[in-house]
Structures are given as structure tokens and as C-alpha cells.
Design brief:
The protein is mostly beta strands. Helices cover 7% and strands 54% of the residues. It is built from four helices and 21 strands. The protein has a 21-stranded antiparallel beta sheet that branches.
Length: 441
Amino acid sequence: MSSMCLMCQILTTEVWAGDYLTNTNQSIGFLRNPSRDGAIDIDGVYYNPAGVGFMDEGWHLQFNWQSPHQKRDSHSSYGALFGANYLNPGTPLADGSVDRLYKGRVHVPIQPSLYLAYNKNDWAFQFGFGVIGGGGSCEFEKGVGSFEALVGQMGMTQLGAAFGGYSLNSYLKGKSYFFGTTLAAARKLNEKLAVSLGVRAIYAWNNYKGHIDNITFRTTTGNIINVPNSYVLDCDLTGMGVAPIIGVDYKLNDYVNLALKYEFRTPITVKADANNNAEFNQLATQRAAFANYLDEAETQMDLPSMLAVGVQVTPIEKLRLNVGYHMFMDRDTRQWTKDLVKDTHEITLGAAYDLTDRIEVSAGYQKTMYDQSEANYSDLSFNLNSYSFGLGVGVKLTDQVKLNAAYFQTNYSDHTVTTNVSNIIFHRENRVFGLGVDVNF
């Protein structure tokens, strides 16, 4: 059972839009129109902090509530092996292999974010709070294919020609939250140019619970062999990191606004607080793949540096058009090697239109492009190229209060990884609903 070390290959992945570890959907304004990098609004505390310097004097407050729901599934086959599960045989395929669907589900009822800015003269002082990475829990009620394959292969190895089948009970649940608190100040240098400097502190909390137990092997004569060992993973990984953020916003003229933001890499080292069972810990002391999940072990989980560039064009008074570009420098983080991942790129497009003085409608598009090797895919964790669209409405209830509502959906490209022993099809779906309120006073 030493190959059960694959249980520990769980990576923290984003729940919504953005990079491997970075969520870019930080407001309902984003869900309505994902191209926010060149916009001037209160959620600019995250997207365009220098642009906040051009807002009206006074206090600006925004609260956002999002509820994402995601499917993270894999169709796995290891030749005909899964057909030997005598309690739960898989689906035979035309090529003679046996396939099984393993379902991962993410449901987050409430995911909040908060932004606050105070503008006075040429200064804008800013505060932001949100879930910058992760953002929920993913549950695999029946485990994943690599777990089952290990048990079946172990039975074949131990029983040889007498192997007649196997059974098991497996479960896995991972939680990940990267809470971010931002403090920043923007200075309007003149009527065209503003700059900003800020810092974001990240507190990372990840929890992993899983088990493989009730393992049995059946011989060709029908005898059932109970395997006494069970393997239980129960581990928290926590850590903190801090990084500066700089921004520039330039009003080219009355119709075009240009913005740039650069977030430096956030170095984060998480430390394990583990309550695994003795069998798991024994294996962990013998094999390097388990080492990060032993009590007090340390692991790197850096958030990559990010460059964001945005343009907003106002061709007529009521219409705003947006274009944005994001680059995440993933290969400069400590947890990945340069041959495993390259940098991630995103492009965004969007538009907002004022139907009346009180009602604004908006919609937008985002394309996310990863560059990763086949070795970076696992049925425990995987990221897929995608395109997203969002739409919504903003309604001014009073001159000081605005209500925002939106729907956001991400469509992923399925990806198949084939090796000499397995074939796995990776599939994801994502939908987010959101409500928010802006208050100016």
C-alpha cells in the first residue's frame, strides 16, 4: 500500500476565474463584465487601484456576495481493471477497457468580498478584503480513479493468478481559502494621471480529509480476504505571505482610459497540523511524497506575480467598452518547475450601457489559456483552458445606493491524458450567481 502516496498529490486550485491559485472574480461588477482592469469604480481597489484616485470625494463602500457551483469530474479507465471491482463494476467500452466516472463537487453558498475607499483632495485611501485564491471545498464521495486503481493493482500483485477481484471504500475532500486583506493609497498627480501603491497580506488555510478503507480481495475460488490496513489523511496547512501592488491610471482624453497593475509574487510557506492515523504516518516517514502532510512539515504555495493591463473606451456618453489582458508568472513560483508549467495568459472583453439614469446593463467575455505539461494533470486536481461569459444589471435605488446582480459561467475544454496503463478524460463546469451593493456617502 505504499503507493497510496498519490493521496497526497492534492493541489490547491482556483474555484472560479483566474490562474491556478488566483481568483480574479472579486466583485459582482466582474461577474457582470469580466473586463474591469481599465474601469474606474469602487472594485478598482482590486482591479485598478490607481483609477480609484479619480472617483468623487467622500466614502465609497461595496459589499459582494457570490455563490459558485462547480463540477470537477474525471472518466478513468485502467484497462479492464475496474471490471474486477465485484461490488461496483464499471462500464465496459468497445476497446475492452472498463470506465468509471468519478465526481467532484464544489458548492459555496456565500463567498463575500468588501471594498472601502475614502477620497479627499488628490488622495484615495483604500481597503479590500476577499478570497484571493481557492474559495471552497471539493468533495469526491467515491474517491478518485487513481485510488481505486492502486487497490486493484495491489490485489493483482499479491494474489497473482489467484486474483479474482477487489472492493474498497474511498473518500476525499479538500478545502482551500486564501484570505486577502489589501491596504493601498492612490495619488492623483494631475487631471490625467494617478498612481497607487499598496500591500496585500494573504492568510492561507487548506484542509484535506480522506480515507481508503474496507479493502477486500477475492480469490478465483470465491474466498474473501479482508485487508486490515486503512489509510486516513486529516491535515491542515496554514501560512501567511505579503506582497506589494503598484498601479498607474492615465486618462488619454475624454474617451479613453488606460490602466496598469502589477502584483508582486506572494511567497507563502504553509505548515502542516496533521491528525493522520498511524498507518498513514508510518508510510509518510518512509516516503518523500508523504512528507508535506506530516505534522509541522512545510510546503511552498506562492501566489504568482501578475500583470494586468486594461483599456476603457467611451465612444458615446452612455456606452463603455473594455479590453483587458492578464499575465500570471507561474514558472517563477517555488512550487512548480519551469518544465511543468509556463505562464498563464488571459484576455477580457466587455461592455456596459446605461439604459436610463438608474439602470445599467453589462456583459463580457474572458479567455483563460494555461500552458502546462501532461504531468501537471491529476484526477485529484486539474486546470483546463476555458472561456467565460458574464452578464448582469446595476440599479440605482437612490443617489447613494446601487444594487448589482449577475450571472457568470465558465466553459472548459475537456482534456484527455493517455499513458501506457490508463486513460483519463478531465471535465469541469462552473456557474456563479452574485448580488452586491454599492454605497456612496
